[in-house]
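So, is this right?
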Amino acid sequence: MTSYQSRLGAEEGIAEELAESQRSISIAEFFEKNRHMLGFDSGARGLVTAVKEGVDNSLTWSTPFVYRDGDETIHRPIGEAIDELIEDNREAVVTKRGGDLEKLSVDGLEALSFDDAYDVDFQRISSVFRHRVNSDIFRITVEGGREVELTDYHSVFVLRDGEVVSVETSDIDEDDYVVLPDTAWSGANVDRLDFVSELAQLSPDRTEAIGLYGVEQLIDEHYDAIRRQVDAQYRMSDFRKCDRLPFNIVRELDLDPEAYEDCEISYRYGRNNVPAVVPVDEQLAELLGVYAAEGCVTGEDHEKVYLSLGTHESTLIARTERLVRSVFDVSPSTVAAHETATNVTIPSKIVGLLFAEVFDAGTGASEKRVPRYVFDFSRDLRERFLLGYAAGDGYPTESVIETLEQEGGIDDIPEDRLVLSTSSDRLSSGLQYLLSSIGYDATHERVDAGTRTIQGHSIEFGDSHKLYVHTDQSAVSRRRLPADEVVSSVEDAKLAYNLDRRQDRVDTEHALALADGGSLQFTGNGRAIAGSDLTALPVDSVERIKYNREWVYDVSVPGDENFMAGTSPLACHNSLDAAEEAGILPDVYVEIQKDRDYYTVIIEDNGPGITKEQIPKIFGKLLY
């Protein structure tokens, strides 16, 4: 490690000292001296490296990422998203490499990424693609249990020498620090949910038995439009008599939400009607959190929703009953499920349909995910969702419930750590992204199946995930940067002493304050990075893994050339970005020629190329 204390009181500037030991060498000389590090230490490896460098960059199917589709922010596996896009738009898909590469240009999609100023926000995705697996797959694990799976030539962004640089998986080692967001980020901030519009996205056969109730005024205002939709089996007088319109007529009327905001929806002969439009408020956010933790939907027709809570949690049971009545205007029934559990039951098919098909929250424990829309709630309501989740499947439960009763936030929990649990891989990742979106860091741990004792009873549990969240975020290591990578010199005696002995990271706020006072010098863009939306965490491991799917996946974000992906958001490099930025469909041609003991690898593409002014910078000399 670099010594910082030895620089105190130095008469000569550090830049001059370093310059004396530097010399100018050509790129070719540097390449020759470092070919083992660059992947060219043998003929076979060098050939593979050269080809893969030009054509192979992708993530595995299950790698989560977050993106915005119009006004909706979505967290899901990248393979699931791209497979769906490609299969739904097959006529627009461009196939290359004899069918081994499929590519689709897209509109209206954005990925979470960082720009040249290191600000994190959503940026335009120009295309998505998948190609058949043709290389090893690796898993990079970063401090805190964050993981991303990618091909060996896909790159992630790391912090080196005061710069954020793209480094291929095969060149990552445990001395590297991977870049990730260090700030809250937001979706579309929805303020109400329109169940009529959402149910209209389902097929007509799924909504055949659903009706809109409380429609007398709507019939008066839209009589002619409704009359045109009526066939022989309906009479307008019946609609008035029953105060009901069949949903499949409503879906054809192209109504504004204001026309039915005071109406209700339900199944024919259903016992419970629910509001057609609901506000996005604290009660909805908390109820969705409780459902994500402890809810399930039963039956093929979504007959009931169960919220299974601990029998001893009387305050939470009563609170959940109030939430159900407030959000859906439905009275739940509460019965003992067994000795340790009590079910708050919502006896409503329409509510079951909303949880299963509209909120798409998963119907069982292993299928759970962050419900739709939650990423587009306000920052405070996203936090309220997380507290609702913690009340159902977190610890310390009593403190979380008390915090909810007091309308507090995560930092009002008296204990220093909040623990969230789930058996769902997708929900575990979604909770990590959601915590990131409100500026909270989480440490992830996988827990093997086993037996646990709860209320004196032994209960079998499957594999699960635990997330550990510091309620006081000022203490987390994510807000510190590696001193060796961002600091060139320190004149503060205490910090210099600590860096020489036991400390390898610097608190960003402290470092910036010292720099303002002239007691610390940053390396390269270190100052800009320290004051930005980004931070970096050390690599714990890089391991080759088995991968049994046919395709690997990627997206193109022109200009910024990166997007966040992984079980928790990590900065990944997008592929084929030069052609994308130029608005050109990428086309790569590879030719290998043998000449005695040498191979010539020719990689041609139709990208925009390199300007004459840039050539000396790229193929000239460097300091070494």
